[in-house]
Task: structure prediction
Amino acid sequence: MSQEKRNCLHCGKPIQGRVDKKFCDDSCRNTYNNQQNSDSTNLIRNINHTLKKNRNILQKLIPLGEDLSKTTRERLMRAGFNFKFFTHSYQNKKGNLYHYCYDFGYLELEGDWFLIVKGKEI
Result:
């Protein structure tokens, strides 16, 4: 039975051991898999970071003990709010469209004003 030479998928060193072994050690296996998944993981991590930041900005704009407040677009943008990212939207019976970042949402009003709301717990 001839044994073909196999090399580690990460570092290229010769592999000894089982026939189906692909890596020389756990470190190479972990590094290889982390590199393969890094692009999608980074994208998800960046999106989640932006969503959490948006939520925290909305939360800070509502006074303690209140469920809503008003603010301007400029104030949101100065705080670093990104309008491209939200978790879901809700349209009420009047046709108003609220965008939510988890449990805090906003409704665009006239003249660059926004109504900030705290969502009801499900």
Q: What stands out?
A: The longest strand covers residues 113-118. The first helix runs from residue 26 to 61. Helices lie at 26-61, 73-78.
